[in-house]
UniProtKB/TrEMBL annotation:
Species in which this protein is naturally found: Bacteroides nordii
Keyword Glycosyltransferase: yes
Domain Glycosyl transferase family: 479-636
Protein name, entry field: Glycosyltransferase
Record Pfam families: Glyco_transf_8, Glycos_transf_1
């Protein structure tokens, strides 16, 4: 191995100071090594180049610095989803081909400092691997891997520190692969080239100790002895003037800054921070204001003891998880406290999001006024909290499952045991008033729901309703054309009256040649449900009661199944339909939301009542699909394409964030 250490940064001219600090920190702590620095840039001023050269020469030891210009136009059209990131982040995809004379190189972000020797990192064996890096604890914490098709066991590195096996990368033509993935899928990935690297090079990345990329997330949540590389991840950096960096090791940046030609920044920084402190003491608001969103919901998928329903799943795993960014924050409001004299709000952090049960009705008005949300986002309003909102704040009402009385009449044809009716005229009239006074904006997850919403909320025929599809995490590594599915048929949902799970059991009884898996559990009317379902829990060997499952365990059932059966007497457009179609699992149902069942499966027609006499229709539909593998494969591929086009998380983030900004601007 070459005794010289090769290090590459990708920066623009505006980041010269911070890159120089990183470079000096390397030199200070690796005095016995000869180091070659490479700066990939689209522009670097002559003045900054001279300063960099002078710094490297000052340390002697035959250290060198070289500047390489990259054609920025190569990356035109590549998407950026993080506001403070520039297209220079994509330069690292080209590194293997830009340095044909090198066998390995250490890539470093410029927002870090090296506080120890990197000799051991440089010597890391890379046989059988293309990259080596540190596992990203933030990605682990937010359960993000599934959204880009990785499994929980797959390593996902933070791309701020990467040891690259350039020789192996050239042998496998990795640059072309990475660029191809970037061109095709960059709009699908939240973390730009970092996602691309981890997704495309799955199984070829080696994990190194956390001391070599000690991120802000790590500093705040874990204790690591003697970290070598401290990485100031996130929007707010040690040098940020208007906001305080939360990294306890932020002062190390200034210790190394003192040893660079850019040390004059320290005086300016202290002066501006002093001005900021004085303004704060005088009552001047010095913090950039985020849009404060209140997500109103009556369940949070098990959070704070709530039900495991579709609304809660959408709220917990998509809205609260993917909507917040540096411009907006989300708090979840459940129904107000049932004790009217309760003056305090109950709060709990779940997955990093604040969940709140507001005070009782005697105090909730003042609490809402004091809390001062900028906008309310409701998922089919199901409780009257907004009755106490009198300041005219904008409301975005996301139509998910509007139920006019005709829908309830159908639901009530089930006689085995009845679904609780939560018809609430007062609530629907309140939504109407909000709309008529211009305070409420309707959005809808499905075009077919708009007419139902107009009836339920007594809206005019020309009511403005904007389409906003529900998002789902999409596994872009899944190939429906080649994946070998099993003869499995699944049911996913709460086991309750409206779902009529007993019909799924009856179907399984009539089709012993296939394996049936029932995913879900009882919540409401638990006793009545269990009495009905207990009769099916023995004596049907091909019927398996799985219970409540989430994450990858749930994905495995969906991915392996050929058909999702839905026996509900009522549905809007359930998330489970979208999850199934994302894995090419076809639909058999007596509900046909947005015509998806008839497009990607078999619609058996409306089935009212308890449904026992219509079981043969489901059996026939399942057999029709299972007996024509060529057609099933074709529909499976078409289903996956549809989901990727319409229901991606990135599309949801873009559209919903813009809707929120527009509503706040117009208030």
């Amino acid at each position: 191995m070459d005794n010289r250490i090769s290090i590459v940064f990708t920066v623009n001219n505006s980041y010269a100071q911070h890159c120089c600090v990183a470079m000096v920190s390397v030199l200070e702590n690796n005095l016995t090594s000869s180091i070659d620095f490479y700066i990939l840039t689209d522009y670097f001023s002559d003045e900054n180049k001279k300063l960099f050269v002078s710094v490297v020469e000052r340390y002697g030891n035959n250290n060198r610095v070289e500047f390489k210009l990259v054609d920025h136009a190569i990356f035109e059209g590549f998407k950026l989803h993080i506001k403070y990131i520039t297209c220079h982040t994509y330069y690292r995809l080209l590194i293997a081909d830009l340095f044909p004379e090198l066998t390995r190189i250490l890539y470093l972000d410029a927002d870090l400092i090296v506080d120890g020797s990197i000799a051991e990192l440089w010597k890391t064996p890379l046989e059988g691997y293309l990259y080596a890096g540190v596992n990203d604890s933030w990605i682990e914490r937010i359960k993000y891997k599934y959204s880009i098709g990785l499994q929980e066991s797959d390593i996902y590195i933070n791309a701020g520190v990467i040891l690259m096996n350039l020789e192996a990368m050239r042998n496998e033509n990795i640059t072309a692969l990475l660029m191809d993935v970037a061109e095709k899928y960059c709009d699908k990935f939240e973390y730009q080239d970092q996602d691309i690297i981890n997704w495309a090079l799955k199984g070829k990345i080696k994990e190194v100790p956390v001391i070599y990329n000690y991120t802000t997330e790590e500093v705040l949540h874990t204790r690591t002895e003697s970290p070598v590389i401290i990485h100031y991840t996130g929007r707010i950096k040690p040098w940020s003037i208007n906001e305080e960096c939360c990294n306890p090791l932020r002062n190390l940046y200034f210790e190394y800054l003192k040893k660079t030609p850019y040390k004059g920044f320290i005086g300016m920084f202290k002066r501006e921070r002093l001005i900021r402190t004085i303004k704060k003491m005088c009552g001047v608001n010095i913090n950039p204001k985020k849009i404060k969103i209140a997500l109103i919901i009556d369940e949070y998928f098990g959070g704070m003891g709530t039900a495991f329903g579709g609304y809660g799943f959408l709220a917990r795993y998509y809205i609260a998880r993917y909507l917040p960014n540096e411009e907006m924050s989300v708090e979840v409001l459940l129904g107000k406290n049932s004790n009217k004299w309760e003056y305090r709000a109950k709060k709990k952090k779940i997955d990093g999001v604040t969940i709140i049960v507001p005070p009782g009705r005697k105090f909730v008005y003042k609490w809402l006024k004091r809390t001062n949300y900028d906008v309310y986002l409701t998922v089919e309003l199901t409780h009257d909290l907004l009755k106490y909102e009198h300041r005219g704040k904008p409301i975005i009402h996301w139509i998910q499952d509007p139920r006019p009385w005709t829908e309830w009449q159908e639901i009530q044809t089930v006689k085995l045991f009845t679904e609780s009716c939560y018809w609430n005229s007062e609530l629907y009239d309140m939504v109407n008033r909000f709309y008529c006074n211009g305070q409420l904006k309707f959005i809808s997850q499905g075009y077919f729901l708009n007419e139902k919403a107009k009836v339920l909320y007594r809206l005019p025929e020309d009511a403005d309703i904007t389409y906003c599809a529900n998002p789902i995490d999409i596994d872009y590594t899944f190939d429906p054309a080649t994946y070998k599915k099993k003869n499995h048929i699944i049911f996913i949902g709460r086991i309750e009256s409206v779902k009529r799970g007993w019909l799924f059991c009856e179907i399984a009884k009539r089709m012993p040649q296939y394996e049936f898996f029932m995913l879900g559990q009882t919540f409401r009317e638990k006793k009545e449900n269990e009495v009905v379902m207990s009769a099916y829990k023995s004596g049907i060997p091909n019927l398996h009661f799985v219970g409540h499952v989430e994450g990858e365990e749930k994905n495995v059932y969906i991915r392996d199944a050929k058909i999702l059966v839905n026996t509900s007497i009522h549905e809007a457009l359930p998330i489970t339909f979208l999850e199934a179609l994302a894995y090419g699992t076809l639909l058999v149902s007596c509900r046909n939301p947005e015509d998806l069942t008839s497009k990607f499966g078999k619609f058996v027609g409306t089935v009212l009542g308890d449904g026992f006499d219509e079981v043969p229709k489901f059996v026939s539909a399942i057999e029709e699909i299972m007996s024509d593998e060529e057609r099933r494969k074709k529909l499976s591929c078409e289903a996956v394409s549809y989901i990727r086009e319409v229901h991606s998380v990135q599309k949801f983030q873009r559209d919903m964030r813009q809707l929120i900004k527009d509503s706040v601007t117009k208030k």
